[in-house]
Design goal:
The protein is of the alpha/beta class. It has one domain: Rossmann fold. Helix content is 43%, strand content 14%. It contains 12 helices and 7 strands. It has a 7-stranded mixed β-sheet, sandwiched between helices. It is globular and about 50 Å long. The structure holds S-adenosylmethionine. The site of S-adenosylmethionine has 21 residues, from helix 2. One of its GO terms (biological process) is methylation.
């Protein structure tokens, strides 16, 4: 496998691209706003020319609901992070941060220290593309890791991370790319890293029905569900970042519970459609619901 920077940040760019597309929507129609996303997307100028509506339509040709699913994931996690900030949490650790710009776009209080954890090459590219003089930049620490081979505890404790402070951890769009052993050991490390204080852990996972019953991962009547599930996996593998791990709700609950976390919420786009898209007049019909991925909130 190539070790070039481009190959390592392909999926991070893919998510940033959907955030850019959403940001192009009219302010009263958009579900999230990410003014920095365009800096990380190859072809951003063309996407801006094509505009929101056309770009969402194009993405729907690849897989209906694909854009809305990624945007609902981002919005759902945005809300968890903002809630923690207003509850007085003092640390935010973004696991597999990619081109997540939450420290700069969510207006987080300066009392909340942020730790962005990702592969060294991705972090380096991100830092080189960030604008100068971002308001919250001094609050952000970049931490290099390979979840498959390195200890989160060691990497975090080598920084100013404080085990005794209330912390929210997010792992967005990452669990499918790392081994089950790596996820289990990362969650085990979270439990040790948060022994001195209460914490929130928000993660997404891909439903293991993708292998046994792909149709169940989409709304009723979703066109060519099995074929699309296969295409998504094939393209991910082709970009050098294959999906290797899938889970079910019981497995995730058991893994979290083993490490002192209680699951509070488990959502998909099917649950969030009426919360985010319907009020914006963008309700997604049942036969375009993409609910392959689940978004979980757990507390310790
Ligand atoms: C789909 S991107 C999601 C990025 C970001 N969380 C978001 O939602 O925009 C997956 C991220 O996981 C990171 N990642 C994948 N495998 C990893 C590993 N073994 N160690 C550290 N990071 C990894 C990638 O570098 C990438 O930034």
């Amino acid at each position: 496998m190539s070790h070039s920077i481009f190959r390592k940040d392909g999926t991070a760019q893919g998510v940033a691209k959907q955030r850019l597309i959403e940001t192009l929507a009219h302010a009263d129609k958009r579900i999230i706003n990410d003014p920095y996303a365009e800096r990380f997307v190859i072809g951003a100028t063309l996407i801006k020319l094509l505009g929101h509506k056309f770009s969402v339509w194009l993405s729907g040709k690849f897989a209906p609901g694909f854009h809305e699913h990624l945007i609902s994931r981002t919005r759902f996690i945005d809300e968890q992070v903002k809630e923690s900030a207003s509850d007085g949490f003092e640390q935010y650790v973004i696991l597999g941060a990619g081109y997540d710009l939450r420290p700069y776009r969510l207006d987080l209080p300066s009392s909340m220290k942020v730790f962005e954890v990702d592969q060294m090459e991705v972090q380096a590219r991100k830092r080189s593309k960030l604008p100068q003089n971002l308001p919250n930049i001094d609050n952000v620490t970049y931490v290099d890791i390979d979840f498959n081979h390195q200890s989160l505890t060691e990497q975090l404790l080598a920084t100013s991370f404080d085990k005794n402070k209330r912390t929210i951890f997010t792992l967005e769009g990452v669990s499918q790319y790392i081994s089950k052993e790596a996820l289990a050991s990362t969650i085990k490390e979270l439990s040790k890293l948060t022994q001195g204080s209460s914490s929130t852990f928000v993660m997404s996972y891909v439903n293991d029905l993708i292998e046994s019953d792909p149709k169940a991962c989409f709304g009723e009547g979703y066109p060519r569900a099995a074929e699309r599930a296969e295409t998504i996996q094939r393209l991910s593998a082709k970009s050098g970042e294959p999906w290797v791990s899938f889970y079910n709700a019981e497995e995730i609950e058991a893994l979290l519970s083993l490490n002192g976390f209680t699951v509070k919420e488990n959502r998909t786009l099917a649950d969030l459609n009426d919360v985010y898209f319907s009020p914006a007049g963008r309700s997604i019909p049942e036969d375009q619901i993409f609910k392959l991925e689940h978004f979980v909130v757990a507390e310790s």
